Amino acid sequence: MTMHPATDPLRFEILGAVRAIRDGAPLDLGPAKQRAVLAVLLLSPGRPVPVHRIVDAVWGDVPPENGTNVVQKYVAGLRRVLDPDRSPRTPGELIALTDGGYVLHAGALDTEDFRTGLARADAERRGGDLEEAARRARIALDLWRGEALSGLTGGVFEAARLRLSEERASAWELWAEIELSRGGFAGLVSELSRLVQEFPLREGLRAQLMIALYRSGRQAEALAAFRDAREYFLDELGAEPGERLQETHRRILRNEPFYAEPVDPWADRAEPTPPPSSPAPPPPPPPPAADPVSVQPWSPAPYAPAIPHQPPAPAWPPPAVMPGHLMSPRRTGIPVVEAVVAGVLPVVTCSMASWAYFVYAAFQRRTLRDVLTAVFYVTAYLTAIFFLAIDPSDLESETTSAAEDVGFTLMFLIIPVAAVHGAILACHPGDNRGARTRRQLARQFAAIHPDGARQAGIGRPDLLRSFDDGGLVDLNHVPPQEIARLRGVSPIEAHRIALDRYEHGPYQSPEDLARRGLLTDRTLRRIQPWLICVPPGQVAPPSAIR
Questions:
Q1: Residue-level pLDDT at 396
Q2: Transmembrane ranges (predicted)?
Q3: What three-state secondary structure class fits 22?
Q4: Which residues pair with 77 in a beta bridge?
Q5: For labeling, which of 135, 185, 406, 522 is most exposed (least CB within 10 Å)?
């Protein structure tokens, strides 16, 4: 079986570096920006993409002066490469311009083949043909050639890369589920160990590794894998492992069998009894037919792996307490040590290292203002050195040259200016690598455990919390006054954002603010690194509350 038949002359791939292939040969897509424009269109195949969104994705905070003309030039270049025999503005062109923007009519795309292959594998698994299911799942996973959208940078591509990475992790869980159902326990240990290293936050893979070790007769190693997982989650997230890992651990301790029945290792668990006052849930729909042609394209659940042995949720609401410290303790106050070092360094080095803290701050914060500040101090120091070196006086001379006078004057001027400026800068930390890392960890945690994210208060600076999520603001839960604290957002705009989420539903992503006309694209780009949209929880019906 092949996922890309030879009858399709043009095929696009984004599960790795962006490529276009015709008749088995890759095409030269031109400069990097032109490939990035194609990647933006491939992320929304068959749907119009406005020009301003292409500009935002490809150029970010430094858009070209005439973005429309630049995008038009790159689209024309793509048309010449992808569809050289068709004249522009003719019916059926590969990249068409509509009222809503540019539309790419992609015939074959590896992400669609990936999802369709996994849907067929899941259908075969539920139909009982585990060998065929494993083969189809592995073929779909083999479509990955490395990191998705490799070589492309920017917020849009990073978000897409994270979503595709989650899909890939869910696909590996599906494949491991099928292989465990087939009984191949010993042969899975090394592969699952590698996957746990690649996707350390996926509890499903860790649980499957524990089961594979346990069924291979290595119970002590399975229990050690749980201890390692628990230590990792406590160190990195400040939270205990989820119910699935803990239940797997309990069953191993009780020497209970896994996969004694085909497919579902949790089949012997009793479903929770619903509260007497709430109506009984309707019976689940029958499983789909195993016909691989009739399955729908596979799409993983956005916040949980699409595999069958997720333990059922309890019938009672979770306790409204915070599960420990997430990431690192919350930092408050002024970083005294950093401020002292920044202020003292130019003095004790006689201006020789006056530039060092500003270079460090630019590397940490990565903003244009901090980079320009570092460039200024480095240039000032080099200028002083230049004047000291161009006309040095003799060692026996009692006077200095005019150039040396200028150099020494610059050096002595830099000392107080750099000391005061560095101390003030250190007292206002702003954004830094540590905060960005904590925001990334918090986003990953919220993507995998939205209930835990709501319970812990990720993105809720209005709550009393003992952890630091890097300054995230949850658009779906924070009050308007917290939204108004964001740079460039007025109190009126903050009120509109809070009102809109109640009138038109929660936000799926920060981009919804621009789609709904609540913020300009420029303002959204400025604050997007601090935004998160944690999905709201299910509200119990009034009859179920007593």
A1: 66
A2: 339-359, 371-390, 410-430
A3: strand
A4: none
A5: 522
